[in-house]
Amino acid sequence: MVHAIRIHAPGGPEQMKWEEVEVGAPGPGQIRLKTTAAGLNYIDTYHRTGLYKLPLPLTLGMEGAGTVTAVGDGVTDIKVGDRVAYASAPLGSYSEERLMQADRVVVLPQGISDQTAAAIMLKGMTTEYLVQRTYKVKPGDTVLFHAAAGGVGLLFGQWAKALGATVIGTVGSEDKAKLARAHGYDHIINYRTENFAERVKELTKDAGVPVVYDGVGKDTWAGSLDCLSPFGLMVSFGNASGPVPPFEIATLAGKGSLYVTRPTLVTYTAKRADLVNSAKALFDVVSSGKVKVEVPQTYALKDAAKAHADLEARKTTGSTLLLP
Protein backbone atom coordinates (compact mmCIF):
# COMPACT_ATOMS: atom_id res chain seq x y z
CA MET A 1 0.00 0.00 0.00
CA VAL A 2 1.10 3.55 -0.73
CA HIS A 3 -0.14 6.88 0.56
CA ALA A 4 -1.98 9.68 -1.23
CA ILE A 5 -3.73 12.97 -0.45
CA ARG A 6 -7.47 12.44 -0.92
CA ILE A 7 -10.70 14.32 -0.26
CA HIS A 8 -14.09 12.79 0.50
CA ALA A 9 -16.04 16.06 0.45
CA PRO A 10 -15.40 19.48 -1.12
CA GLY A 11 -14.19 22.28 1.13
CA GLY A 12 -11.11 23.85 2.65
CA PRO A 13 -7.62 22.40 3.08
CA GLU A 14 -8.85 20.53 6.18
CA GLN A 15 -10.68 18.14 3.82
CA MET A 16 -7.34 16.81 2.55
CA LYS A 17 -6.41 13.47 4.15
CA TRP A 18 -3.19 11.44 3.99
CA GLU A 19 -4.53 7.95 3.33
CA GLU A 20 -3.43 4.52 2.24
CA VAL A 21 -4.47 3.63 -1.30
CA GLU A 22 -4.00 0.59 -3.47
CA VAL A 23 -2.42 0.97 -6.89
CA GLY A 24 -2.88 -2.01 -9.18
CA ALA A 25 -1.02 -3.20 -12.24
CA PRO A 26 -1.25 -1.02 -15.35
CA GLY A 27 -3.95 -1.94 -17.84
CA PRO A 28 -3.75 -1.65 -21.62
CA GLY A 29 -2.28 1.70 -22.62
CA GLN A 30 -1.29 2.55 -19.05
CA ILE A 31 1.92 2.89 -17.07
CA ARG A 32 2.60 2.70 -13.36
CA LEU A 33 5.03 5.26 -12.00
CA LYS A 34 6.67 6.14 -8.72
CA THR A 35 6.21 9.84 -8.02
CA THR A 36 9.39 11.82 -7.46
CA ALA A 37 7.72 15.26 -7.35
CA ALA A 38 4.23 16.71 -7.74
CA GLY A 39 3.46 20.26 -8.79
CA LEU A 40 1.12 22.55 -6.86
CA ASN A 41 -1.27 24.58 -9.01
CA TYR A 42 -4.18 26.89 -8.33
CA ILE A 43 -6.47 24.60 -10.28
CA ASP A 44 -5.91 22.03 -7.51
CA THR A 45 -7.83 24.31 -5.16
CA TYR A 46 -10.73 24.46 -7.62
CA HIS A 47 -10.90 20.66 -7.58
CA ARG A 48 -10.71 20.63 -3.76
CA THR A 49 -13.42 23.21 -3.20
CA GLY A 50 -15.77 21.78 -5.79
CA LEU A 51 -15.63 24.84 -8.06
CA TYR A 52 -14.74 22.29 -10.74
CA LYS A 53 -16.93 19.34 -9.75
CA LEU A 54 -15.45 15.83 -9.91
CA PRO A 55 -16.55 12.45 -8.52
CA LEU A 56 -15.53 11.75 -4.92
CA PRO A 57 -13.48 10.45 -3.20
CA LEU A 58 -10.72 12.09 -5.18
CA THR A 59 -6.93 12.01 -5.20
CA LEU A 60 -5.80 15.54 -6.05
CA GLY A 61 -3.08 16.75 -8.38
CA MET A 62 -2.75 17.30 -12.15
CA GLU A 63 1.00 17.64 -12.49
CA GLY A 64 3.92 15.44 -11.60
CA ALA A 65 7.05 13.56 -12.55
CA GLY A 66 8.29 10.11 -11.73
CA THR A 67 9.97 6.89 -12.79
CA VAL A 68 8.10 4.21 -14.73
CA THR A 69 7.91 0.94 -12.78
CA ALA A 70 5.60 -1.06 -15.08
CA VAL A 71 3.92 -0.74 -18.47
CA GLY A 72 0.65 -2.21 -19.73
CA ASP A 73 -0.15 -3.95 -22.98
CA GLY A 74 0.19 -1.84 -26.08
CA VAL A 75 2.68 0.63 -24.62
CA THR A 76 5.64 0.68 -26.97
CA ASP A 77 7.28 4.11 -26.71
CA ILE A 78 7.75 4.16 -22.92
CA LYS A 79 9.71 1.60 -20.94
CA VAL A 80 10.40 0.67 -17.33
CA GLY A 81 13.02 3.04 -15.90
CA ASP A 82 12.08 6.01 -18.06
CA ARG A 83 11.68 9.37 -16.35
CA VAL A 84 8.36 10.90 -17.36
CA ALA A 85 6.25 13.95 -16.58
CA TYR A 86 2.68 15.04 -17.18
CA ALA A 87 0.12 17.78 -16.57
CA SER A 88 -3.29 16.37 -17.36
CA ALA A 89 -6.22 14.29 -16.23
CA PRO A 90 -6.84 11.87 -14.70
CA LEU A 91 -6.02 13.55 -11.41
CA GLY A 92 -3.79 11.78 -8.93
CA SER A 93 -0.29 13.28 -8.76
CA TYR A 94 -0.61 13.75 -4.96
CA SER A 95 0.24 10.07 -4.54
CA GLU A 96 3.44 8.14 -3.85
CA GLU A 97 2.64 5.87 -6.81
CA ARG A 98 -0.06 5.96 -9.46
CA LEU A 99 -1.34 4.69 -12.79
CA MET A 100 -1.35 7.03 -15.78
CA GLN A 101 -2.37 6.84 -19.42
CA ALA A 102 0.83 6.43 -21.43
CA ASP A 103 -0.31 8.86 -24.13
CA ARG A 104 -0.64 11.63 -21.52
CA VAL A 105 3.00 11.57 -20.38
CA VAL A 106 6.24 12.66 -22.05
CA VAL A 107 9.68 11.20 -21.54
CA LEU A 108 12.07 13.70 -20.00
CA PRO A 109 15.21 14.61 -21.91
CA GLN A 110 18.60 14.69 -20.29
CA GLY A 111 19.18 18.05 -18.66
CA ILE A 112 15.61 18.39 -17.38
CA SER A 113 15.41 17.06 -13.81
CA ASP A 114 12.32 15.46 -12.30
CA GLN A 115 11.82 18.43 -9.98
CA THR A 116 12.20 20.95 -12.80
CA ALA A 117 9.67 19.03 -14.88
CA ALA A 118 7.16 18.78 -12.03
CA ALA A 119 7.52 22.52 -11.47
CA ILE A 120 6.93 23.54 -15.09
CA MET A 121 4.76 21.05 -16.96
CA LEU A 122 1.39 22.63 -16.25
CA LYS A 123 2.59 26.21 -15.86
CA GLY A 124 5.13 25.96 -18.67
CA MET A 125 2.84 24.38 -21.25
CA THR A 126 0.21 26.94 -20.26
CA THR A 127 2.78 29.65 -20.96
CA GLU A 128 3.63 27.98 -24.26
CA TYR A 129 0.11 28.05 -25.60
CA LEU A 130 -0.48 31.59 -24.27
CA VAL A 131 2.53 33.13 -26.01
CA GLN A 132 2.66 30.95 -29.12
CA ARG A 133 -0.91 29.93 -29.93
CA THR A 134 -3.69 31.84 -28.14
CA TYR A 135 -1.98 35.09 -29.13
CA LYS A 136 1.33 34.80 -30.93
CA VAL A 137 3.57 37.31 -29.17
CA LYS A 138 5.72 39.21 -31.66
CA PRO A 139 8.74 41.49 -31.39
CA GLY A 140 7.52 45.00 -30.59
CA ASP A 141 4.29 43.91 -28.88
CA THR A 142 3.41 45.36 -25.49
CA VAL A 143 1.45 42.83 -23.43
CA LEU A 144 -0.13 42.79 -19.96
CA PHE A 145 -0.01 39.84 -17.58
CA HIS A 146 -1.79 39.73 -14.23
CA ALA A 147 -0.19 38.03 -11.19
CA ALA A 148 3.29 38.44 -12.60
CA ALA A 149 4.99 36.84 -9.57
CA GLY A 150 2.95 33.65 -9.78
CA GLY A 151 4.08 30.36 -11.24
CA VAL A 152 2.87 31.04 -14.78
CA GLY A 153 3.74 34.72 -14.45
CA LEU A 154 7.44 34.20 -13.82
CA LEU A 155 7.74 31.87 -16.81
CA PHE A 156 5.63 34.15 -18.99
CA GLY A 157 7.72 37.25 -18.28
CA GLN A 158 10.90 35.54 -19.41
CA TRP A 159 9.39 33.84 -22.46
CA ALA A 160 7.57 36.94 -23.73
CA LYS A 161 10.72 39.02 -23.22
CA ALA A 162 12.74 36.45 -25.19
CA LEU A 163 10.22 36.86 -28.03
CA GLY A 164 10.93 40.58 -28.13
CA ALA A 165 7.89 41.95 -26.32
CA THR A 166 7.62 44.77 -23.80
CA VAL A 167 6.03 43.06 -20.80
CA ILE A 168 3.81 44.77 -18.20
CA GLY A 169 2.91 42.85 -15.06
CA THR A 170 0.67 43.41 -12.05
CA VAL A 171 1.54 42.34 -8.51
CA GLY A 172 0.24 42.87 -4.99
CA SER A 173 3.40 43.76 -3.06
CA GLU A 174 6.82 45.31 -3.45
CA ASP A 175 8.54 41.97 -2.82
CA LYS A 176 6.58 40.45 -5.68
CA ALA A 177 7.38 43.47 -7.84
CA LYS A 178 11.09 42.89 -7.32
CA LEU A 179 10.70 39.21 -8.19
CA ALA A 180 8.78 39.97 -11.38
CA ARG A 181 11.36 42.54 -12.53
CA ALA A 182 14.03 39.87 -12.20
CA HIS A 183 12.01 37.63 -14.54
CA GLY A 184 11.65 39.74 -17.64
CA TYR A 185 9.01 42.35 -16.82
CA ASP A 186 9.73 45.84 -18.09
CA HIS A 187 7.02 47.59 -16.09
CA ILE A 188 5.39 46.53 -12.81
CA ILE A 189 2.09 47.84 -11.48
CA ASN A 190 1.15 47.31 -7.84
CA TYR A 191 -2.61 46.92 -8.08
CA ARG A 192 -2.98 47.64 -4.35
CA THR A 193 -1.61 51.17 -4.72
CA GLU A 194 -2.24 51.99 -8.39
CA ASN A 195 -5.13 51.80 -10.84
CA PHE A 196 -3.68 49.29 -13.28
CA ALA A 197 -5.91 50.29 -16.22
CA GLU A 198 -4.93 53.95 -15.90
CA ARG A 199 -1.26 53.02 -15.56
CA VAL A 200 -1.37 50.80 -18.66
CA LYS A 201 -2.83 53.68 -20.65
CA GLU A 202 -0.02 55.91 -19.37
CA LEU A 203 2.64 53.39 -20.32
CA THR A 204 1.18 52.93 -23.81
CA LYS A 205 0.39 56.62 -24.43
CA ASP A 206 -3.35 55.80 -24.39
CA ALA A 207 -2.97 53.16 -27.12
CA GLY A 208 -3.67 50.20 -24.86
CA VAL A 209 -2.30 46.70 -25.36
CA PRO A 210 -3.28 44.12 -28.00
CA VAL A 211 -3.66 41.36 -25.42
CA VAL A 212 -4.28 40.94 -21.70
CA TYR A 213 -3.50 37.62 -20.02
CA ASP A 214 -5.64 37.23 -16.92
CA GLY A 215 -5.58 34.29 -14.54
CA VAL A 216 -7.07 36.31 -11.67
CA GLY A 217 -10.67 36.55 -12.84
CA LYS A 218 -13.36 38.52 -11.01
CA ASP A 219 -11.16 41.25 -9.49
CA THR A 220 -9.35 42.19 -12.71
CA TRP A 221 -11.95 41.51 -15.40
CA ALA A 222 -13.48 44.97 -15.86
CA GLY A 223 -10.19 46.84 -15.62
CA SER A 224 -8.55 44.47 -18.09
CA LEU A 225 -11.08 45.30 -20.79
CA ASP A 226 -10.16 48.97 -20.33
CA CYS A 227 -6.50 48.14 -21.01
CA LEU A 228 -7.11 46.76 -24.50
CA SER A 229 -6.60 48.55 -27.78
CA PRO A 230 -9.31 48.25 -30.45
CA PHE A 231 -9.67 44.65 -31.65
CA GLY A 232 -7.67 43.55 -28.61
CA LEU A 233 -7.87 40.07 -27.12
CA MET A 234 -8.84 39.35 -23.53
CA VAL A 235 -7.37 35.98 -22.51
CA SER A 236 -9.16 34.83 -19.35
CA PHE A 237 -7.37 31.62 -18.39
CA GLY A 238 -8.08 31.38 -14.65
CA ASN A 239 -10.10 32.74 -11.75
CA ALA A 240 -7.93 32.94 -8.65
CA SER A 241 -10.10 35.73 -7.21
CA GLY A 242 -13.35 34.08 -8.23
CA PRO A 243 -15.22 33.42 -11.49
CA VAL A 244 -15.70 36.23 -13.97
CA PRO A 245 -19.26 37.57 -13.48
CA PRO A 246 -21.82 37.48 -16.30
CA PHE A 247 -21.43 40.41 -18.67
CA GLU A 248 -23.25 41.98 -21.59
CA ILE A 249 -21.59 40.99 -24.83
CA ALA A 250 -22.34 44.46 -26.20
CA THR A 251 -19.70 45.73 -23.74
CA LEU A 252 -17.05 44.35 -26.11
CA ALA A 253 -18.40 46.48 -28.94
CA GLY A 254 -18.38 49.66 -26.88
CA LYS A 255 -14.78 49.14 -25.79
CA GLY A 256 -13.40 48.66 -29.30
CA SER A 257 -14.73 45.48 -30.94
CA LEU A 258 -12.81 43.34 -28.48
CA TYR A 259 -12.29 39.59 -28.52
CA VAL A 260 -12.50 37.28 -25.50
CA THR A 261 -11.28 33.71 -25.12
CA ARG A 262 -11.31 31.25 -22.23
CA PRO A 263 -8.58 28.73 -23.08
CA THR A 264 -7.55 25.63 -21.14
CA LEU A 265 -4.45 23.48 -21.26
CA VAL A 266 -6.72 20.43 -21.62
CA THR A 267 -7.88 21.62 -25.03
CA TYR A 268 -4.47 22.79 -26.18
CA THR A 269 -2.87 19.41 -25.39
CA ALA A 270 -5.83 17.13 -26.18
CA LYS A 271 -4.07 15.65 -29.20
CA ARG A 272 -0.94 13.62 -28.50
CA ALA A 273 1.02 15.55 -31.12
CA ASP A 274 0.09 18.88 -29.52
CA LEU A 275 1.12 17.60 -26.08
CA VAL A 276 4.50 16.40 -27.34
CA ASN A 277 5.17 19.58 -29.31
CA SER A 278 4.19 21.83 -26.40
CA ALA A 279 6.45 19.94 -23.99
CA LYS A 280 9.32 20.02 -26.49
CA ALA A 281 8.99 23.78 -26.95
CA LEU A 282 9.01 24.18 -23.17
CA PHE A 283 12.02 21.94 -22.61
CA ASP A 284 13.90 23.69 -25.44
CA VAL A 285 13.36 27.20 -24.06
CA VAL A 286 14.38 26.06 -20.56
CA SER A 287 17.45 24.20 -21.85
CA SER A 288 18.48 27.27 -23.84
CA GLY A 289 18.60 29.35 -20.65
CA LYS A 290 16.06 31.88 -21.97
CA VAL A 291 13.59 30.75 -19.31
CA LYS A 292 14.98 29.90 -15.89
CA VAL A 293 13.01 27.80 -13.42
CA GLU A 294 13.05 28.46 -9.69
CA VAL A 295 11.22 26.61 -6.93
CA PRO A 296 11.07 29.01 -3.95
CA GLN A 297 9.21 26.57 -1.71
CA THR A 298 8.72 22.83 -1.27
CA TYR A 299 6.49 20.85 1.10
CA ALA A 300 6.33 17.20 2.03
CA LEU A 301 3.53 15.56 0.10
CA LYS A 302 1.81 14.62 3.35
CA ASP A 303 1.70 18.36 4.20
CA ALA A 304 -0.18 19.30 1.02
CA ALA A 305 -2.97 20.91 3.08
CA LYS A 306 -0.48 23.46 4.41
CA ALA A 307 0.72 24.14 0.87
CA HIS A 308 -2.87 24.78 -0.26
CA ALA A 309 -3.47 27.17 2.63
CA ASP A 310 -0.31 29.12 1.83
CA LEU A 311 -1.14 29.26 -1.88
CA GLU A 312 -4.62 30.64 -1.24
CA ALA A 313 -3.21 33.17 1.25
CA ARG A 314 -0.84 34.49 -1.47
CA LYS A 315 2.15 33.41 0.61
CA THR A 316 3.83 31.53 -2.24
CA THR A 317 5.62 32.79 -5.32
CA GLY A 318 6.64 31.00 -8.50
CA SER A 319 6.48 27.21 -8.51
CA THR A 320 5.87 24.98 -5.52
CA LEU A 321 6.62 21.27 -5.26
CA LEU A 322 5.22 18.50 -3.08
CA LEU A 323 7.84 15.85 -2.40
CA PRO A 324 7.01 12.25 -1.33
Automatic annotation (TrEMBL):
Keywords assigned by UniProt, alphabetized: NADP, Oxidoreductase
Domain Enoyl reductase (ER): 11-322
Entry annotated with the keyword Protease: no
Pfam families for the chain: ADH_N (PF08240), ADH_zinc_N (PF00107)
Recorded GO CC terms: cytosol
SMART domains named in the record: PKS_ER (SM00829)
Keyword NADP: yes
Gene Ontology molecular functions: mRNA 3'-UTR AU-rich region binding; NADPH binding; quinone reductase (NADPH) activity; zinc ion binding
Source species, domain of life: Bacteria
PANTHER family: QUINONE OXIDOREDUCTASE PIG3-RELATED (PTHR48106), QUINONE OXIDOREDUCTASE-RELATED (PTHR48106:SF13)
Protein name per Swiss-Prot or TrEMBL: Quinone oxidoreductase
Organism: Ferrovibrio terrae
